[in-house]
Design goal:
By secondary structure, this protein is α/β, with parallel strands linked by helices. The protein has twelve helices and eight strands. Strand 6, helix 7 and strand 7 form a beta-alpha-beta unit. The mean pLDDT is 96. GO terms for molecular function: 4-hydroxy-tetrahydrodipicolinate synthase activity.
Length: 307
């Protein structure tokens, strides 16, 4: 398998605005598949360039293996190759990550998102071996996911450059929020001859700057509620339209901040509830957005023209 960001199934590139989509739930916590299908159609119509299913925003820690697989299959089937589907199949067990990734491949996902192993705190060599084993075991493109604020373990830039040379590993979602780190990684990848390896932002506040420096898109929380604007932001930034990038970024700035007043996906699910897209269902140990934060969130949505 070559290192390329071309989707094998949808035939569209894996780039641009890709919402890390929420998992709609009824008030009792059961999965709301009609709402999911409706959201997927809305994202396609609004210009989202891809869909990431069962990631952090999709409450991956609290869905069962059976639900995890069903969410991937329903999404792939309903999207029907209109845009790429990236399945969150990572974890802190290499064996389980391979099993989930094999399932995602079997139902037609375009790529997998592989989080840095959490809790067991592997070394850099352990992280390298983990991701390499997954890429070698399943013929499905791998996007690394570095989010040290959640995993504690932090994938170093040097390790990322090493992994960029592994066939099948095509990019990284950098959710550190550090423009310095992202820019240095882009430069190091270029020096190492890995220009085709894609760096995606995983932090909405800094995504525009990373894309202006050469990032290939944004795996986004805000895109859940502002898919058209986030698509336009990504396209502007990746085509060096600084004025348009700045204009949209300022329009969405309060929304970006509001999405993290409590742990993701608490605020974004409440925002979608306010917009009439989903119920307020969320699974323990997460609970609905605190009452004191609801009016400020609505104000941010109204300011951005989303309500």
């Amino acid at each position: 398998m070559t290192n390329t960001t071309q989707s094998k199934v949808s035939k569209k590139p894996i780039a641009g605005s890709m919402p890390a989509i929420v998992t709609p739930m009824f008030e009792d916590g059961s999965l709301d598949f009609p709402a999911l299908r409706s959201l997927l159609d809305w994202h396609v119509a609004e210009g989202s360039d891809g869909i990431v299913i069962v990631g952090t925003s999709g409450e991956s820690p609290t869905v069962s293996v059976e639900e995890h697989c069903e969410l991937i299959k329903v999404t792939v089937d309903h999207i029907a190759a209109r845009i790429p589907v990236i399945a969150g199949t990572g974890g802190n067990s290499t064996t389980e990550a391979i099993e989930l990734t094999n399932f995602a491949k079997s139902v037609g996902a375009d790529a997998s998102l592989q989080v840095v192993p959490y809790y067991n705190k592997p070394t850099q060599d352990g992280m390298y071996a983990h991701f390499k084993k997954i890429a070698e075991s399943v013929d499905l493109p791998v996007i690394l996911y570095n989010v040290p604020g959640r995993t504690v373990a932090d994938l170093a830039g040097e390790t990322t450059v090493r992994l960029a040379g592994v066939p099948g590993i095509i990019g990284i979602k950098d959710a550190t929020g550090s423009i310095e780190r992202g820019t240095l990684l882009l430069a190091d990848l270029k020096r190492a001859g890995h220009q085709e390896f894609s760096v995606f932002s995983g932090d909405d506040l800094s995504a525009a700057m990373l894309m202006l420096m050469g990032g290939k898109g944004n795996i986004s929380v805000t895109a859940n509620i502002a898919p058209r604007l986030m698509h336009e932001l990504c396209q502007a930034a990746m085509s060096d339209d600084v004025l348009k990038t700045r204009t949209i970024q300022y329009q969405l700035l309060a929304v970006h901040k509001a999405m993290f007043t409590e742990a993701n996906p608490i605020p974004v699910k409440w925002a979608l509830h306010e917009m009439g897209k989903v119920t307020s269902g969320i699974r323990l140990p997460l609970t609905p957005l605190s009452v004191a934060l609801r009016e400020p969130l609505k104000a941010a949505l109204k300011q951005a023209g989303l309500l």
